[in-house]
Design a protein that fits this description.
Layout lengths: L1 E6 L5 H9 L3 E6 L4 E3 L4 E3 L2 H8 L4 E2 L8 H10 L3 E5 L7 H4 L6 E5 L7 E2 L2 H7 L4 E8 L9 E8 L6 H24 L15 E2 L15 H10 L6 E5 L2 E11 L10 E5 L2 E5 L4 E8 L6 E2 H7 L11
Parallel strand pairs: 1-2, 1-6, 2-5, 6-7, 8-11
Antiparallel strand pairs: 3-4, 7-9, 9-10, 12-13, 13-16, 14-15, 15-16, 16-17
Helix pairs in contact: 1-6, 5-7
Length: 311
Amino acid sequence: MNIIFMGTPDFSVPTLQMLIDEGHNVLAVVTQPDRPKGRGNKVLMPPVKELALKYDLPVLQPERVKGNEEFLNHIKTLNPDVMVVVAYGQILPESVLEVPSLGCINIHGSLLPKYRGAAPIQWSILDEEKETGVTIMYMDKGMDTGDMLYKKSMPIDPSDTYESLHDKMKIVGAQALKEAMPMIEAGGKEREKQDDNQATYASMIQKALGEINWEKSNHEIDAKVRGLNPWPVAYTYYEGQPMKVWQTSMTNENTDYAPGTIIEVDKAGMHVQTGNGILIIEEIQAPNKKRMPVSEYIKGNSIEKGRLLGN
């Protein structure tokens, strides 16, 4: 098939690689402009552009797609059968969605209609779901509201972080699209409408969401730590100073101490009473320090039993 691919981050790379490997004719790769990144503010190209250049594919990097007549006219001249969109990073206007003869296809990181929106992977962990997956869908002008063509589910492991689930899902997404390509080529007659009554929304993650409420159960707090790793990272306060919490585990024990109380500090970590159950904080990051196991941190810093975490 003649395909225009639109994607930007690492999540999009396996899908573009699959389309190349399967012998599809990738007419152009549309990605976000190169941006300054990191401490040195070095201008870096998106991961998708790196892959496209490796295969000498034409790359387009419009600042804005909406209202961009030059871009619209250019992709019309390419006459694509389909556009594949994976984490591109801009909302596409209807004028663009109407260009390919077989439609615009998106890989969404949830089993729609659950978790429409910007952060489905994080929220599936935060909500302690046991299963998630990807949906191959037709794009329309709404936010993840288009017809569904194909779904592929996958388990969420109890130890999964946002990063680990993201890295598994980008592979599953590419595989799901590979399996759906014959259906797309044949016109997608298997497509089905979403039940809007079953829809839930995965709003953008804000930094403030990271603050730990010790009244919650150890399960809920552990899910927060995993779902917000590596960004924005769950945090609490020790003696008024913010402390990032990178890794935790749980025990079913309870004590009579108030939620947030440090009841033990040992090689395993910091044992903290929650609203229900004990949470063991295993890895932390103090201000202006590297992240490190609690067992390392306490060699040069004191964490006192009996202290309350939080503001």
